[in-house]
Design brief:
alpha/beta
């Protein structure tokens, strides 16, 4: 993060997150490609291209491919929400991916379960130095001082949602074309992939496209639920009250850091 990139691609998983970013961009202009709206502009002195990923692996892969092939970005930052899987990963925490796996990839018996045919591996890893820099930045953004009165995130009232001080985790995020909302399915995923901290629907697809293009990337997920039978409860409220604020603050901090 110490060498400024020429142009940064910012992918948001939720419309509310994208809108929060657009609201603070002073000069954004929209271009439509492949049925998607790409917003080109500047933020904190950095040239950025912001876009909604869309939901699901294929949609996110298409968005990433267009972003990389048409806009000349040198780095991708992907933010969104996810269901928590790992022990101690609570609602309101943030997970920074250091590996990503498609949990619904299964070409066995031709290939081992989870392995990406043609690549010879299951887990894709963002650059380690970028991951460390992102994790450090997220920890600063979500510090107690930032969430206290007068801090940058003072408007996020965690106690109103029954949430405590967020913790930042680094580890495996898994993706699949399924919204996980049952405890039984969550248990099956953790049995198959015990290192998984969070589950969502796009990150590993974004990682595969970035891997193929040789593009540095970071995947940052705020935990909105525990991927169990209560996963749908108050989801819109969490996005509006917490996730969009976290996402904007994290992206802005990463842009300032350079």
């Amino acid at each position: 993060m110490n060498t400024p990139t020429r142009r940064i691609g910012i992918m948001a998983a939720m419309p509310e997150e994208l809108q929060a970013l657009l609201d603070v961009m002073p000069d954004e202009s929209m271009e439509r490609r492949a049925g998607r709206e790409f917003w080109v502009g500047h933020l904190h002195g950095r040239e950025v291209v912001a876009v909604l990923s869309r939901i699901g692996k294929v949609a996110a892969a298409t968005t990433t491919t267009v972003l990389l092939s048409s806009y000349g970005v040198d780095q991708v930052i992907f933010t969104g929400v996810a269901g928590g899987l790992g022990d101690g990963v609570r609602v309101g925490d943030v997970v920074v991916a250091d590996a990503l796996i498609q949990h619904d990839m299964d070409a066995s018996p031709l290939f081992p379960r989870f392995e990406l045919p043609g690549l010879g591996l299951a887990a894709l890893a963002p650059p380690a130095t970028l991951t460390t820099a992102v994790r450090d930045t997220v920890e600063q953004v979500l510090s107690p001082a930032s969430l206290a009165a007068g801090g940058a995130l003072a408007d996020v009232h965690l106690e109103a949602l029954g949430l405590s001080q967020p913790r930042v985790h680094q580890g495996l995020i898994i993706s699949g074309d399924q919204f996980i909302h049952s405890a039984q399915t969550s248990r099956a995923l953790t049995q198959a992939l015990p290192a998984a901290l969070a589950v969502e629907m796009e990150g590993a697809a974004v990682a595969q496209v970035c891997h193929d293009f040789g593009m540095p990337y970071a995947v940052i997920r705020t935990i909105s639920d525990r991927a169990d039978d209560d996963a749908h409860i108050d989801f819109p409220r969490f996005i509006d009250a917490v996730a969009r604020h976290y996402s904007l603050a994290i992206v802005e901090a990463l842009l300032r850091r350079g």
